[in-house]
Amino acid sequence: MEAFDTYQTPLSSRYASKEMAHLFSPANRFHTWRKLWLNLAIAEKELGLNISDEAIEQMKANLHLDPKQFEIAAAEEKKRRHDVMAHVHTFGQVAPAAAGIIHLGATSCYVTDNADLIFLREALTLLLQKLAVVIDRFAKFAEQYRDLPTLGFTHFQPAQLTTVGKRATLWIQELLWDLRNIKRARDDLGFRGVKGTTGTQASFLALFDGDHDKVEELDRRVTELCGFSYAYPVTSQTYSRKIDIDVLAPLASFGATAHKLATDLRLLANLKEVEEPFESTQIGSSAMAYKRNPMRSERICSLSRHLMTIQQNALGTASVQWFERTLDDSANRRITLPEAFLTADIVLTTLQNVSEGLVVYPKVIARRIAQELPFMATENIIMAMVKSGGDRQEAHEKIRVLSHEAAHQVKQLGLENDLIERVRADPYFDPIKGQLDVLLDPKSFIGRAPEQVDRFLAEWVRPALADNELQAALGRAGKAELNV
Description:
By secondary structure, this protein is mainly alpha-helical. It is built from 20 helices and four strands. Strand 1 and strand 2 (157-163) form a beta hairpin. Helix 3 (26-46) packs antiparallel against helix 10 (212-225) and helix 7 packs antiparallel against helix 8 (164-188). The longest helix is centred in the first third of the chain and has 37 residues, at 108-144.
């Protein structure tokens, strides 16, 4: 019952994947701090500092915290009001041979900032892999419905026809840009490395008796041990908070993509042309039993709005960092960074779930086309009459009159669009009545939409997903299941 007595963020308790929730968990954070302390000790030992083999081995053997160590760390932090030093002392209790050299020469940001950069890189990787799966699923949908005509909308008013698959490519193209942006942000990430209290490396220079080469090698070696290809050449006490802006910007941009996509699906659900999955036992409304609300798409929109705003925190934080640092970034970043990634993770899981269960209703789509196509076909009818020897202006006037009569039937009387029946009944159009079925074939109004889908998938989507990392993710991916 204790879990129900205190507030829990629904991001982790209700929605997020286990992988992303674990990445930002206290257990993983403090485990990562210990790995950073171990790597620092290894590099310092390699460069000649007096650190025993026993100290290294004890550190390696105690990289994970058990419940008792969490209790000790909590008590230490309450006493010292300093989370990093609390964990330095806790680590020293289980690795006593290393107690005197843990955190040697370092400042708190050695573990906090470097750990954050590790988390950011791993979180971006998780998002990339999930995004690749979402793109793959929507690509299959686009291919399946590449040539199914549907009414296009501009200003949410009936426009020229497109296809269900072509509309999906518009979503996919934006997702591909998100894939590019997130990958770029991940691959650009560097490491803070070992820089000291104000970024001058003065403490490490003292440790190595003024040997600049050893200090530079220490920075390079720790960066290498932590799996990064480079460290930022200069830092203050922290890595620049502008890095957080660069990381969160593509997540916010993805939020805009997801919101637009999910909004389109909500509108299509209202039109009853395309619906998201709906389980047999799912309840759409507590009062209106017949309802099939698009709750998944609504959730995507709701969370995407949150995701789009989180970057504002990073912008604000970066702009008010005084000189070499201020601590007013800390509490904000503890919330902002995990929330951004948990939110993006949830949106991607929900998008995948939706993409794997979309239901298309061709007969509903065809009925809506039939209501609007007669008006769209009037230009084709006029051209056919001219080709048959008729006068363009006379044909235009005939069509204008019949169109207004049909519009009256639709708008004033609530009846079906009977324009084509009126054309068939008018002797003036006898020369082309045998062509009307061809002139009214919806597939003659979709232009190159099917060919555009084919080319887009072949030349843009498949190459983007051909990367070995993404192919491995696609191979591992199963169906996305939602907890609620």
